[in-house]
Amino acid sequence: MRRHESVAEVQREACLALRWLCEDHADNRSRIGAAGGVDAVLTAMRRHESVVEVQREACLALHWLCEDHPDNQSRFGAAGGVDAVLTAMRRHESVEKVQIQACLALRNLSCNHADNRSRIGAAGGVDAVLTAMRRHESVVEVQREACLAIHWLCEDHAENRSRIGATGGVDAVLKAMRRHESVAKVQEWACAALRNLSCDHAENQSRIGAAGGVDAVLNAMRRHESVAEVQEEACAALLDLSWDHAENQSRIGAAGGVDAVLKK
Question: Does this model's pTM top 0.90?
Fold first, then answer.
């Protein structure tokens, strides 16, 4: 990668190799991180911003390098990885595969990493994720990964909850649920997103309730009765939607929420 920085094909294949070396392999993630792999991937992204295949494979390599690896998450965050991913998303808004892999990367950059959540929020990551959702409403994979990115961006982060709520994130998540009712993973991760959006955030609780979020969650529970993961995230969403919020408590009760929870 260092010897042939200017050759896009080399960078693409090298990112692909790094991805497969570290997928489900913690030791190789550590080796790659310690050997300067983070800088190599980011150099490839910056040198070849216009090359879709490089951006796509680099985002996927970043995703796997950061999977359950706090050191690599910190390396990428400190080295400008957030800006590199967001540049890819903005430069290639129409390319669904770039949006999918970039949302995956943002998810693993922010998972259990407060500093990266703040970096992503401050750099405009919320707008980038929501733009992906609006631009690719019919693409299951974009909606699924974007919902999970929203979930992690909001985890214990009041500022990102407010950003997402104020910029139409609630409507984007609910639209994904309605458009892809039959897809269990979209429903599961959308419920997870609603849970973290509403946790300790009265304004988002009200937004979700007023926008029909209660019906969306209950519909997910009824449509996917046999899927334990959907039921778990839906119940957690109902918990946070109703916490100290009388109006949502009433909505959930009137819409059959008690029966849905007990049926679980």
Answer: yes
